[in-house]
Automatic annotation (TrEMBL):
Cross-referenced InterPro entries: B_lactamase-like_C, Metallo-B-lactamas, RibonucZ/Hydroxyglut_hydro, Sec-metab_biosynth-thioest, WH-like_DNA-bd_sf
Key words of the record: Hydrolase
SUPFAM superfamilies: Metallo-hydrolase/oxidoreductase (SSF56281)
Name of the featured protein: MBL fold hydrolase
Length: 331
């Protein structure tokens, strides 16, 4: 495969990164295609279920001389709609088994199957942390739009941290990189010093680390540990979900992101010391700009992840305000 066309960026051996359009500010998500001489034809991440994304993937497949039915293995880094959305479509068209980390199957992936049942809890969690009543309905509608672009897989096979999968005819180690998603998976090839990182680290934006009703209790604590892991791993190159497809300088970027989160922790602690308030009110101080409803949701979840991390460290405590029906954080 010498000329795979303009859509595809060669990564390592038979592995190519395809930039697939998504209607989000990041513009594209990275889908990996692997056509090794020995080993399964594989896809890593699937993009969002939109006609544009499906067409882009078809173009990428055909540039490599492939059809949907040739795919033998699908691995998904995490459950977010832009990475998992087409999982069920790829599964139906190829018959390939879909794989995710065991932790992600039990939480994020389950979220898509139990979406209707979990939505009330999801909204209650936001309301209990101060989201105004008038924003709840539009947040529910925004969530539904996201759900409509996800076609869940019927069966997902679990991968475990430390096990190996075959890509490029070589072994890649399965890593657990929680924080941005509870069961975020990475794939590490030591020989090539290449990490398939998904959204665990990104070059231009700080991956959202949010506390939702269905997440592990301390996603920021998880993420700070993931940054430590990435710093120690020090890959020469990482294939990233957005603003890539390939980045260098992972170690320096991990340090920079840790500094960024430490600054935010200090900011939240200082704000709560100045005046005790809800996570939503803290989020208005931390993200002090115009945001649409999904931006506000990310801002609240991210602020809450920081506030709860401080609470679990014993640096903040919270009380229930019965009159307003919200949790209040105090220093
Ligand atoms: Zn993501
Ligand atoms: Zn993403």
């Amino acid at each position: 495969m010498t000329d795979a066309g303009p859509l595809l960026t060669p990564v390592l051996g038979s592995l190519y990164a395809l930039q697939v359009p998504i209607p989000y500010p990041m513009k594209t998500v990275t889908v990996l295609l692997d056509v090794p001489a020995h080993g399964p034809v594989s896809m890593v991440d699937t993009a969002l279920d939109t006609p544009e994304a499906q067409a882009a993937i078809e173009d990428g497949l055909s540039a490599l001389g492939l059809h949907w039915s040739d795919i033998e293995q699908v691995i998904i880094t995490h459950h977010h709609p832009d990475h998992y959305g087409l999982a069920g479509v790829v599964e139906e068209r190829s018959g390939a088994a879909v794989h995710m980390l065991d932790v992600e199957i039990g939480r994020g992936e389950r979220y898509w199957h139990l979406w209707e049942e979990w939505l009330p809890g999801h909204l209650k969690h936001m309301r209990d942390h101060g989201l105004p009543q008038e924003s709840l309905a539009s947040m529910g509608a925004d969530n539904r739009r996201g759900r409509d672009r996800v076609h869940p897989a019927s069966r997902v096979q679990p991968l475990r941290e430390g096990q190996y999968v075959s890509l490029t005819g070589r072994d890649w180690e399965v890593l657990w990189l929680p924080g941005h998603a509870d069961g975020h998976l990475g794939l590490w090839n030591e020989q090539g010093s290449v990490l398939i990182a998904g959204d665990a680290i990104l070059p231009r934006i700080s991956p959202n680390v949010g506390l939702y009703a269905y997440t592990r209790p301390d996603p920021l604590g998880d993420y700070l540990q993931t940054l430590g892991k990435l710093e120690a791993l020090n890959p020469a190159r990482a294939v990233v979900g957005h603003h890539g497809p390939v980045m260098e300088g992972v170690q320096a970027r991990a340090r920079e992101l840790r500094g960024h989160h430490h600054e935010r922790l200090d900011f939240i602690a200082a704000q709560a010391r100045q005046q005790p308030r809800s996570a939503y009110d803290l989020s208005l101080a931390m993200f002090n700009r115009e945001l649409n409803i999904s931006g506000r949701r990310f801002a609240l979840a991210e602020t809450l992840a920081h506030a709860e991390h401080l609470r679990l460290l014993g640096q903040l405590y919270r009380t229930w305000d019965e009159g307003r029906g919200v949790w209040i954080y105090h220093a």
